[in-house]
Protein backbone atom coordinates (compact mmCIF):
# COMPACT_ATOMS: atom_id res chain seq x y z
CA UNK A 1 0.00 0.00 0.00
CA UNK A 2 1.47 3.32 -1.12
CA UNK A 3 1.85 6.08 1.44
CA UNK A 4 0.96 9.49 0.04
CA UNK A 5 0.70 13.09 1.19
CA UNK A 6 -1.87 15.41 -0.38
CA UNK A 7 -1.04 19.10 -0.79
CA UNK A 8 -4.05 21.44 -1.05
CA UNK A 9 -4.94 25.10 -0.64
CA UNK A 10 -8.71 25.21 -1.03
CA UNK A 11 -11.90 23.26 -0.50
CA UNK A 12 -10.28 19.90 -1.08
CA UNK A 13 -12.80 18.19 -3.37
CA UNK A 14 -10.06 16.13 -5.01
CA UNK A 15 -8.68 15.28 -1.58
CA UNK A 16 -12.14 13.99 -0.71
CA UNK A 17 -12.35 12.00 -3.95
CA UNK A 18 -9.02 10.34 -3.20
CA UNK A 19 -10.19 9.36 0.28
CA UNK A 20 -13.43 7.94 -1.14
CA UNK A 21 -11.53 5.91 -3.74
CA UNK A 22 -9.36 4.46 -0.98
CA UNK A 23 -12.45 3.62 1.08
CA UNK A 24 -13.99 1.87 -1.95
CA UNK A 25 -10.72 -0.07 -2.37
CA UNK A 26 -10.23 1.41 -5.82
CA UNK A 27 -6.98 3.09 -4.79
CA UNK A 28 -4.40 1.04 -2.95
CA UNK A 29 -2.94 3.86 -0.87
CA UNK A 30 -3.09 5.59 2.48
CA UNK A 31 -3.16 9.35 2.97
CA UNK A 32 -0.59 9.83 5.69
CA UNK A 33 -0.64 13.62 5.73
CA UNK A 34 -2.37 16.71 4.39
CA UNK A 35 -0.10 19.68 3.70
CA UNK A 36 -1.94 23.00 3.52
CA UNK A 37 -0.74 26.59 3.17
CA UNK A 38 -4.09 28.18 4.09
CA UNK A 39 -5.11 27.77 7.75
CA UNK A 40 -8.78 28.52 6.99
CA UNK A 41 -9.12 26.29 3.93
CA UNK A 42 -12.04 23.86 4.07
CA UNK A 43 -9.73 20.98 3.18
CA UNK A 44 -8.50 21.18 6.78
CA UNK A 45 -11.99 20.30 7.98
CA UNK A 46 -12.16 17.41 5.51
CA UNK A 47 -8.92 16.06 6.93
CA UNK A 48 -10.17 16.42 10.49
CA UNK A 49 -13.37 14.55 9.70
CA UNK A 50 -11.42 11.77 7.98
CA UNK A 51 -8.88 11.45 10.77
CA UNK A 52 -5.99 12.44 8.51
CA UNK A 53 -3.07 14.25 10.15
CA UNK A 54 -2.42 17.70 8.73
CA UNK A 55 0.41 20.19 8.66
CA UNK A 56 -0.49 23.79 7.95
CA UNK A 57 1.98 26.58 7.30
CA UNK A 58 2.04 30.16 6.06
CA UNK A 59 4.75 30.94 3.55
CA UNK A 60 5.15 34.50 4.82
CA UNK A 61 6.38 33.11 8.14
CA UNK A 62 9.49 31.76 6.42
CA UNK A 63 12.40 33.57 4.81
CA UNK A 64 12.34 31.44 1.66
CA UNK A 65 10.64 28.59 -0.21
CA UNK A 66 13.65 26.41 0.60
CA UNK A 67 13.16 27.01 4.32
CA UNK A 68 9.49 26.01 4.47
CA UNK A 69 10.01 23.10 2.10
CA UNK A 70 12.68 21.71 4.41
CA UNK A 71 10.16 21.82 7.24
CA UNK A 72 7.59 20.10 5.00
CA UNK A 73 10.18 17.49 4.01
CA UNK A 74 10.75 16.65 7.67
CA UNK A 75 7.00 16.12 8.07
CA UNK A 76 6.88 13.87 5.00
CA UNK A 77 9.86 11.82 6.10
CA UNK A 78 8.41 11.36 9.58
CA UNK A 79 5.40 9.68 7.92
CA UNK A 80 7.48 7.70 5.39
CA UNK A 81 5.57 9.36 2.55
CA UNK A 82 6.40 7.82 -0.84
CA UNK A 83 4.46 10.09 -3.24
CA UNK A 84 3.27 13.70 -3.18
CA UNK A 85 -0.16 14.34 -4.71
CA UNK A 86 -1.09 17.95 -5.44
CA UNK A 87 -4.82 18.68 -5.31
CA UNK A 88 -5.43 22.38 -5.71
CA UNK A 89 -2.12 23.40 -4.14
CA UNK A 90 -1.51 26.96 -5.32
CA UNK A 91 2.26 27.13 -4.97
CA UNK A 92 5.06 26.06 -7.27
CA UNK A 93 7.08 23.17 -5.89
CA UNK A 94 10.71 24.08 -5.23
CA UNK A 95 14.07 22.37 -5.49
CA UNK A 96 13.99 20.78 -2.03
CA UNK A 97 10.89 18.68 -2.71
CA UNK A 98 11.58 18.16 -6.43
CA UNK A 99 14.97 16.66 -5.57
CA UNK A 100 13.71 14.53 -2.68
CA UNK A 101 10.66 13.23 -4.59
CA UNK A 102 11.96 13.15 -8.15
CA UNK A 103 9.26 11.80 -10.52
CA UNK A 104 7.05 11.14 -7.51
CA UNK A 105 5.09 14.40 -7.43
CA UNK A 106 1.79 14.44 -9.34
CA UNK A 107 -0.65 17.25 -10.11
CA UNK A 108 -4.10 17.56 -11.64
CA UNK A 109 -5.01 20.58 -13.76
CA UNK A 110 -8.41 21.63 -15.18
CA UNK A 111 -7.37 21.97 -18.82
CA UNK A 112 -5.92 19.92 -21.66
CA UNK A 113 -2.30 20.90 -21.13
CA UNK A 114 -0.21 22.39 -22.54
CA UNK A 115 -3.15 24.70 -23.26
CA UNK A 116 -4.28 27.08 -20.49
CA UNK A 117 -1.64 26.48 -17.83
CA UNK A 118 -1.63 28.51 -14.63
CA UNK A 119 -4.45 30.15 -12.73
CA UNK A 120 -8.11 30.16 -13.78
CA UNK A 121 -7.62 27.64 -16.57
CA UNK A 122 -11.38 27.31 -16.97
CA UNK A 123 -11.80 31.05 -17.41
CA UNK A 124 -8.93 31.14 -19.90
CA UNK A 125 -10.55 28.37 -21.97
CA UNK A 126 -13.99 30.00 -21.89
CA UNK A 127 -12.56 33.37 -22.94
CA UNK A 128 -10.73 31.69 -25.83
CA UNK A 129 -13.93 30.00 -26.94
CA UNK A 130 -12.65 26.42 -27.13
CA UNK A 131 -15.09 23.66 -28.06
CA UNK A 132 -13.20 20.90 -26.25
CA UNK A 133 -12.10 21.14 -22.62
CA UNK A 134 -10.82 18.66 -20.10
CA UNK A 135 -8.47 17.59 -17.33
CA UNK A 136 -4.80 16.63 -17.22
CA UNK A 137 -2.82 14.60 -14.70
CA UNK A 138 0.92 15.24 -14.99
CA UNK A 139 4.25 14.90 -13.27
CA UNK A 140 5.47 18.06 -11.55
CA UNK A 141 8.66 19.83 -12.52
CA UNK A 142 10.01 23.29 -11.75
CA UNK A 143 7.60 25.05 -14.13
CA UNK A 144 3.93 25.94 -13.86
CA UNK A 145 1.97 22.96 -15.20
CA UNK A 146 4.83 22.04 -17.55
CA UNK A 147 5.70 18.49 -16.41
CA UNK A 148 5.19 15.36 -18.56
CA UNK A 149 1.56 14.43 -19.14
CA UNK A 150 0.37 11.12 -17.69
CA UNK A 151 -3.34 11.08 -18.54
CA UNK A 152 -6.05 13.33 -19.94
CA UNK A 153 -9.78 13.23 -20.47
CA UNK A 154 -11.79 15.66 -22.59
CA UNK A 155 -15.40 16.66 -23.20
CA UNK A 156 -17.16 18.76 -25.81
CA UNK A 157 -18.46 22.16 -24.76
CA UNK A 158 -22.05 22.76 -25.85
CA UNK A 159 -23.11 26.25 -26.78
CA UNK A 160 -25.49 26.67 -23.85
CA UNK A 161 -23.12 25.44 -21.12
CA UNK A 162 -22.62 27.98 -18.35
CA UNK A 163 -19.36 28.27 -16.45
CA UNK A 164 -20.88 26.50 -13.44
CA UNK A 165 -21.99 23.57 -15.61
CA UNK A 166 -18.54 23.38 -17.20
CA UNK A 167 -16.89 23.41 -13.77
CA UNK A 168 -19.22 20.66 -12.56
CA UNK A 169 -18.22 18.52 -15.54
CA UNK A 170 -14.53 19.16 -14.88
CA UNK A 171 -14.90 18.21 -11.22
CA UNK A 172 -16.75 15.03 -12.18
CA UNK A 173 -13.89 14.05 -14.49
CA UNK A 174 -11.23 15.00 -11.95
CA UNK A 175 -12.77 12.88 -9.21
CA UNK A 176 -12.70 9.80 -11.44
CA UNK A 177 -9.51 10.35 -13.44
CA UNK A 178 -7.19 11.28 -10.55
CA UNK A 179 -7.70 8.16 -8.40
CA UNK A 180 -7.61 5.94 -11.51
CA UNK A 181 -4.34 7.47 -12.68
CA UNK A 182 -2.78 7.26 -9.22
CA UNK A 183 -3.71 3.59 -9.01
CA UNK A 184 -2.00 3.00 -12.35
CA UNK A 185 1.13 4.74 -11.13
CA UNK A 186 1.26 2.92 -7.82
CA UNK A 187 0.65 -0.58 -9.20
CA UNK A 188 2.72 -0.58 -12.39
CA UNK A 189 6.45 -0.22 -12.92
CA UNK A 190 5.93 1.74 -16.09
CA UNK A 191 3.55 4.57 -16.94
CA UNK A 192 1.53 4.68 -20.13
CA UNK A 193 2.00 8.26 -21.28
CA UNK A 194 -1.07 9.35 -23.22
CA UNK A 195 -1.74 11.83 -25.97
CA UNK A 196 -4.21 14.67 -25.60
CA UNK A 197 -7.85 13.60 -25.24
CA UNK A 198 -6.98 10.00 -24.40
CA UNK A 199 -7.66 8.30 -21.12
CA UNK A 200 -5.11 6.08 -19.49
CA UNK A 201 -5.94 2.57 -20.59
CA UNK A 202 -6.40 -0.28 -18.19
Descriptive labels:
alpha/beta, 202 residues, EC 2.1.2.2, GART, 2 domains, 7-stranded mixed β-sheet, disordered C terminus, 6 helices, Rossmann fold, 7 strands, transferase, Phosphoribosylglycinamide formyltransferase
Question: Can you give a write-up of this model?
Answer:
The protein has 202 residues and is α/β, with parallel strands linked by helices. The protein folds into 2 domains: 1-102, 3-Layer(aba) Sandwich (Rossmann fold); 107-202, Formyl transferase, N-terminal domain (Rossmann fold). The chain is built from 6 helices and 7 strands. The protein has helices at 13-23, 43-50, 65-78, 95-100, 121-128, 163-187, and strands spanning 2-8, 29-36, 54-56, 83-86, 105-109, 132-139, 149-156. A 7-stranded mixed sheet has the order 3-2-1-4-5-6-7, with helices on both faces. The longest helix is centred in the last third of the chain and has 25 residues, at 163-187. The radius of gyration is 16 Å and the shape is globular. Mean pLDDT is 92; it is low at 189-202.
Amino acid sequence: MTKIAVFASGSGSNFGAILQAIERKELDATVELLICDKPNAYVMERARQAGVDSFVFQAKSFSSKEQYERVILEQLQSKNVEWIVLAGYMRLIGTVLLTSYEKRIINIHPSLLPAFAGKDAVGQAIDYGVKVMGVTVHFVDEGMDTGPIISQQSFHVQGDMSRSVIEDQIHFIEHELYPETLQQLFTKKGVHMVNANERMEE
